[in-house]
Specification:
Strand content: 15-25%
Number of helices: 9
Oligomer: single chain
Helix content: 10-25%
Distance between the termini: 25 Å
Largest sheet: 9 strands, mixed
Number of domains: 3
Number of strands: 19
Structural class: alpha+beta
Radius of gyration: 26 Å
Order of helices and strands: HHEEEEEHEEEEEEEHHEEEEEHHEEHH
Shape: globular
Amino acid sequence: MSGPNSTPISDSLFSSEAVSSPESLGRVERDAVKAAKAQLVSHANEWGIDPTQFQASDAIDGVAGMSTVRFSQSIDGVEVANSLLAITVNKVGSLLSYTKSISDYSGPSQASISKTEAIESMKSKLANDLGITKDQVLVSNIKLVIVDGALVDNVPSGKYLAWRASTSVLNDATSISTTYLSEDGQRVLSSLPFIRGITADPFVCDLQVDVATPGYVLPPGVTMDINNNRYVNIAAGGQGMPLCGLNTFGLNGPNTEVGKLNIIKTWDYFSSVLGQDINEEKYLGNIAPTVNGDATPRISAFIDICATNGTTGSCPYANAFWVPWTSTECASGACSAIFLGKNFDHADDVIAHELAHGVTFALAFSSAMADNSETAAISEAISDVFGEAMDQLSVAPGEVADPAWTMGEDAQTGGYRDLQDPNVSKIDKNWAPGDSHDNSGPVNRLAF
């Protein structure tokens, strides 16, 4: 097949400039970068920029041969924090659009302290602010940058040099932050955690909380066997399911913290990466004043559940699910919650998978959802992709991303599904009815 360079075209700019790191990009991306660089040089005066300040940082291959190339800005060799110049070209290298968020900083390019001194100062000041020892503060990826208050949130206004680093508290994944220190090391300008901003903490209840708790009552829709194991009815079609709230026994029990953290991590992924607040009532948040105790939307979750279909039971329950149900308890007329079997609260990808069902249900998959349908298979695949994407992008210090791309490896050794190598029960030219978790395989493999 002929490539985009094979036929000369008058407005094509693919032949311009070399790529500084061609081994890191595929051929199409390399061509797009060369074309975008040429467009940058050609339009520099019109756009009011100095082309020598911009370096390609990413190339995104789009539809119909379009590609978007992102450039970061450096002035006198110092990176401008959060700068962006994005240029979109078509398959022959012609300009389609551009956008820029850049700085006109013109100050010094040297800090008054060294990188080592900046690290020590950052550790000392954060330790003092947090009331911990300096040895508990971790600092990595520190570098001198140009800060422009128009480009960076929660910093003093103006344009100036500062030290930027990733910081965290030892053994606390929720503390991972981007921190800015003044170039002279005298003060912390800003320290924003990656996991932040959830509009309301989720309500997470332990269904097997000690029944000896004074005043314990079963949540609505929950039954108990002779061994005091608590069950939800998975055959009820979502009707009569319990909602975790302020007055629900097991709320914030000692075993609920991991599940709560993983829900918040999922919220942060959807918010920061996809721009969606899944805590909104239209997605997963329940406004249920009699249960929540307020008018704030909150995600409801139960951990360590046992399950029954009305005839037989499974305890512990080796699965997880999200379900909506009609109820006057919730202001919208419908409530929803996720229900996690034993240890599934430890699997952040499973939690993200189930919460993604609430999002896709609200946006697209609210009908034609028989379990053997194509719609259900696509829904399962999308949830798998969101779950694994969150897992890959939410790696705590000292961890590595899951190399196997498996779902649920934190709940069961080897996981429950393999996106890299999905199970294939039958090869056919056409889709055929079957379990949605099997028919999700092709999309899972595509995502990998």
